[in-house]
Amino acid sequence: MNALVPLPVLLPLCATGLSLTFGTRMQRFQRFISVAVLTAVLGLSITLMIAADRQGPLSVHLGDFAPPLGITLVADRLSGLMLTVSSAVTLCVLIYSLGQGMTDRDRETPLAVFHPAYLILVAGVSCTFLAGDLVNLFVSFEIMLVASFVLLTLGGTGPRMRAGSTYVIISLLSSMLFLIAIAMTYAALGTVNFAQLAEGLPDLSVGVQTLIQAMLITVFAIKAAVFPLAAWLPDSYPTAPAPVTAVFAGLLTKVGVYCMLRTETLLFPGNRIGDLLMAVALASMVIGILGAVAQTDLKRLLSFTLISHIGFMVFGIGLATREAYGGAIVYVVHHITVQTTLFLVAGLIERRGGTTELTRLGGLAKAAPVLALLFFVPAMNLAGIPPLSGFIGKLGLMRAGVADGSTWAWILVAGSVVTSLLTLYVVAKVWNLAFWRAAPPGQAETGTVLESGDDSDDDADEGPDGLPGTGDEGVTPLPAGGPVAAKLREKSVTTTSRLPWPMTAATAATIVLALSFTVLAGPLTAFTDRSAVELLERTPYIEEVLGR
């Protein structure tokens, strides 16, 4: 069974080579390879999760080099669960992107870049969850960074290039800080293997431990978009195509949360910075949701709710109890699916209504009832309406806070309630403006060109709605039959009265996945409780890696 551990990383990387080799001439084969490989990765992830639950952690030393020389990959309950959920979500988003037809836009380039970049991103995410040492974790981050820049800048529009540049600059700064932290750790202990660090770090002085911990937490907080290190996110994600934004919002921020959870439990037990984590969790919750209240563009609004709800996960990490870790893990897997779904729905709304600017939308409940249902269910889930999985995760975190009984814990419980109520207000505002009220004058007609080769930077500061930062800057909607640039090979994105069925089906699949967490709430919470116990014990992980 241990031999299966590297496959969620190796399969997407091998498929990338096949995609690059045959993609330009055999696009159907390229799509088949992508779907088949992600389906196989999902099956492997489920297998590893079940095996880790029954047998304990699984590990493999690549090249049979033992730590600290070799690369170690480890699958335990937490990493198996994260792999399974991320694989399911990335598969759904891939099917959505095929329905959107975004891969057709790569034909002017020497290589069809979407599929290779997407597969590399999946490999990077999988490697992050399986990494057993800091250097391998750093390499995983860099793999994701390279793929992320390609995906963020698909189409080459001015706003996307600027957003991609901002994302890369922030990521490079965090990478530099990460390298410094790795160098300091290796200089102090002569290893970067997690299991060996777990045994060696307690021997260092408290000051050195705290410095290394603070640097690593800062790096992971940037990745997770924890306030006040989240200013880059609302300007980077909304400009990208809907599938890219969905997988970034759903997965990449949770990679940072996962790394915080892993290092705080395995490397730095004792919760020395718990109060600091709870303070930033509260700030993320409140400031993020207040930012969402102020938005009128759906994509930016969802970006701010993303920042806000990261605070719930950091709340659990800051409490550092079994109940809190269990609640945080439940909320992580819930939020991956729900946030991904809402960004996919935002793409459907843009395809149907011509924009994501709420002031220019209306009447969608009557015009597109299926789309209204696809928004309503995950929106209520995000708000934490019983008995959905959002309520289960929040309830677990609040119960952990009440059981802890500290001042910060009670403050976070109150902040969680306020944030949940404001989230309900935000999604209700979206429902009233985009779905419930009558369509406003000037709403885009069916056949309006949303994106074309004329996507230049001539109108860099404002979109067609006159508002900056709405995700459609530089795009001039053209009437049906309007010119489409040659670089799209007669392809364009237009509003349609009937949404492509793969997009609708993929979105529905992510909703079903989120609802399954409600139906299987008992087994899910039992699994996350066992994961929390395993994280706190640390011994099974260390003994598996070191072969004791």
TrEMBL record:
NADH:quinone oxidoreductase/Mrp antiporter transmembrane domain span? 131-418
Point out the signal peptide segment: none
This protein's source sits in the domain of life called Bacteria
* Annotated stretches, region: Disordered: 445-481
Q: Where in the cell is it found?
A: Cell membrane; Membrane
Which protein is depicted? Na+/H+ antiporter subunit D
User: Lineage of this protein's species?
Assistant: Bacteria, Bacillati, Actinomycetota, Actinomycetes, Kitasatosporales
Please give the organism.
Answer: Streptomyces cavourensis
Instruction: Give the UniProt entry's GO cellular component terms.
Output: plasma membrane
Q: Give me any GO biological process, just one.
A: ATP synthesis coupled electron transport
